[in-house]
Amino acid sequence: MRSIPIQPIGLFILLTGLYACGNNDRPVGNKVRELLSISPVSTEDVTAHLQQALTTSDSLHPLVLDKDTVFLLGELRKVYEPGTYAPLWVEASGVKPMADSLLAALEEARWDGLEPEKYHFTALKDKLAALRAAVGKHDEVPAANAGVLDMQLTEAFLNLSRDMVYGLYEPNVVDSLWFNRTDSTFSAVTALQEAVKDGHIGQAVDRMRPQMPWYGALRGMYRKYSELKDQDTLGKATAGNLALIRSKVAQELGINTSEAAAEGDSTGLDFVKQYQYYNGLGMTGKTDSAFLAVLNRPYAEKAAQVRYNLERSRWLTKEFRYPYVLVNVPQYRLYYYDSTAAMNYTMRVVVGKTSRQTPQLDASISNVVFNPNWTVPPTILKKDILPGVSSSGAAYLSRKGLKVYNMDGKPVDAATVTSDNYRRFIYRQDPGAGNALGSVKINMPNKWLIYMHDTPHRSDFQNRNRAQSSGCVRLHHPREFAAMLLNQPKYNEEEIDSVILKRKTVAVKPPQSIGVHIVYFTVFPDSAGNLCFVSDVYKRDNKFRKTR
After folding, report:
1. Residue 348: CA atoms inside 13 Å, Cβ hemisphere, count?
2. Does residue 145 lie within any of the structural domains?
3. Residue 456 vs residues 46, 407, 451: alpha-carbon distances, Å
4. Does one domain contain both 328 and 467?
5. pLDDT tens for residues 34-55?
6. What is the domain extent for residue 270?
7. d(C-alpha 497, C-alpha 454), whole Å
8. Catalytic residue annotation
């Protein structure tokens, strides 16, 4: 307990004066602490309490103190031990300003799709207010109360930081084909220690957020729909009620009704096309059943869809290293970000069909191959070659341009292949017009055997639904893309055409490291940076609904 040196006669006079005073609505102890400038919070006592609580408890079980529970005991020890158990948030005069910064960060996390109450926001806010009220009245604050509050503030920061960096869910629980890497080296304890040292809690939390170019826009969109769901009072639109359609479109797109009514071609329905584009629909300009289904979809559901994609963003590393290629599967689109962080190229792609879904992964381009041969991978071997051989034998292999080799690479007569022994052989297509990989293949080693390539099926790129491959990514403009990746005069588009005409297989390594990130986002920016809803081709958003 604290002590203030004072002469006995002085103390006698002081106490006599206090008792003689007519104002007796405040306890004498409070007046004494105020007049003697005794701090309501003894940081020495709080330190002693923290040390006792954190060193005598079993780290395998929650710490329960006066009905308050602290769960992260092991991590709390790592936080407090280096500072000899001194409080982080509480000081002699009450509470440090950075505690308010933490509360502000907890409240702001709602727009990241993280509920503040998961981190006991209201309870912490009330406890801070109660402590400050006690300090304001010069009441003595029990060390146990201040100590528990300090630990709970610390625990809130640790929990928020982990959720902000890694997400609320384990990716493979929600999406079994999500294999992208996360920030596995992140330490919430280290982040807190650094934040406390410089006192900038809000900035520390900001740094934990994904730094991808789309994340801030997703937060804004989530806030928009979260606020709109409380204004969803316009009712259900029907095809014949054009006035209501205009009002609902105007409300959601953030334009006023008069602007929506004024825009238009000869039919006056250009705003319908704008809305269709924003929601991933065909731009027909018709207020058909597909249009009305999306228009009448509750804002709460749209907010939830945005929230799912905020979570997916946290399943990636905080930021990608430039330059990199990004493929968003449900958008059927590839983006290239160069070394200046500018998105300077995009094109359509074809991805895996629903029965052979393209997985989400990170890789690096090893080389670009011109005039590649194609070796049938295990999945296609089982799903395509076996049925073909079973029904037509060697004729099927001949029709597909497949040559057969034994495991030593020696040619084998296709007639010897049966449905019983087909696994004993290697099946390969030579380079040429009928090759399944076309004239360009971009290797990016990964255990799923996924790569990017040309295709003889050029008409597929005109389809809205381009989930038509066996899992690999087919490129709309492979030669143009290859020239950009290689970025050297020897392999400009004209030279690449010359190489391809020679029908000789050539592999070229890019002059710099280029990452490839295949992701799955159902809300994502278009090439102009405008966020749009995207068709959930693999129905993976449904898994979020079941998990939450």
Report:
1. 14
2. yes
3. 73, 28, 16
4. yes
5. 443 457 789 999 999 999 988 8
6. 233-297
7. 13
8. 453, 472
